[in-house]
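REQUEST FORM: STRUCTURE PREDICTION
Request ID: SP-0412
Submitted by: Lab K.M.
Chain count: 1
Length (residues): 146
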Amino acid sequence: MEKRVQINTAEPKAYKALGELMKYVKTCDLDSVHTELINIRASQINGCAFCLDMHTRDALKQGEKDQRIFVLSAWRETDFFSEEEQVILRMTEEITLISQQGLSSETYQKAAALFDEHYISKIIMAIVTINTLNRIAISTHKPIVS
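STATUS: Completed
RESULT:
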């Protein structure tokens, strides 16, 4: 793979600003399982190997079950995910694939029935953040560190 610019070293101020958003997502009261499901599912959709590597490792360290990670891309075909997790995964897919339809009214209403406006806002911010990181990692060929 060709070597490309690494924004964190070429433009550290820009990366630092993004780091503040990453810190917010990590420290807000969004459940860590929810955060990692968002991170992994968006990264699967976007094809971001760097982020998939990082976030599957993070999820495993936090006690996530291997089997749930293995089937995450086919989550609709299992009963491994709670109702809340299913809504979060649906939100992740719809927001990640925003040009297809965006966050549908049906999905939003399901989220509103389960979460308050603060939690919904945090879910959306987590989805937006990982999508930004995916785009940076893919466009710059961010190397996976073994």
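NOTES: The chain has a mean pLDDT of 95.
Reviewed by: T.R.
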